Amino acid sequence: MMAAPQAPPVAHSLRQTGDNILATARAAHERLQDPLHGGEPSTAIHDLRVALKRWQALLRLLQGPIGDEAMVLRHEARLLAREFGRSRDAQSVLDALADIAKQRDAGTPAMSQRTEATITRRLQETREASETAQLNAEVHQHLRDGLARASTCLASWPLERISFEDSVTALARSYRRARRRLPREWDDTNPEAIHDFRKAIVAFRYQLDLIAPLWPKVWRAFIDEVQKLRMQLGKSNDLVALSLLTQPNQPLAHWRSRLTPPIESRRRFHLERARLLSGRVFAESPRSFRKRIEALAKAAADSG
């Protein structure tokens, strides 16, 4: 039996969501500044970047009712995330290397353990150098200032005036935005287009959390599908980043002939899975998607 829907989210949930996101970002930043007790810097950087992406997604949702200030803060959050991006990029290629190492394609020769260990060590050195270079006082101050400004703005915004219909309109717009970026020919789509599609998926994914309480089991299943799509696209992007490091005069140029076949094979695998997932996620039109949200909201209100 399907679980009974809960009441629709109200305006204060937007404020609570924003407060929680910024608190997560501050906590990750504190861990970065405490190397003895904060754990691996790469983990803290990952958590920080996720929080900043969630903040950007919320700001995109609020841009209509709030206006230019939300747009300016979203741009600033994107720049802050980019400042911490080099270390994450280095970790991404490590993830891509692990990805191709575990594939079992008979047509693609496997890397030797020695080669994999050598390349892994080279990439780890690159990541550590990036972390050292980017975690300077100026970057930390930029982040502190940005988070303080974000908290001040969030506290001053009249979120109580934002109706549920406003949120639905913005969410349906994000659905349409992502759907329009859906590749028509996956085999011929360039990596930049795949990257743009993934960015739209990321924003849409985090915005979905705002409506999940409408009917948790229904929306959680849909969110899981969107998350799987995001992960497949992300793995494809990581493999592209690894491939770029095999170009002439790049750190992995020596292993280009060994890395290129498994990179291409694994990327085709992830894009095929992404194609199947996107067919399910974007099966309905933006208008139908909006009607589904409204219908579940009405059912939740009637049951409350």
From TrEMBL:
InterPro entries noted in UniProt: CHAD_dom, CHAD_dom_sf
SMART domains in the record: CHAD
Protein's UniProt name: CHAD domain-containing protein
The organism's taxonomic lineage, starting at the top: Bacteria, Pseudomonadati, Pseudomonadota, Alphaproteobacteria, Hyphomicrobiales
The CHAD domain, residue ranges: 7-287
Pfam family, one: CHAD
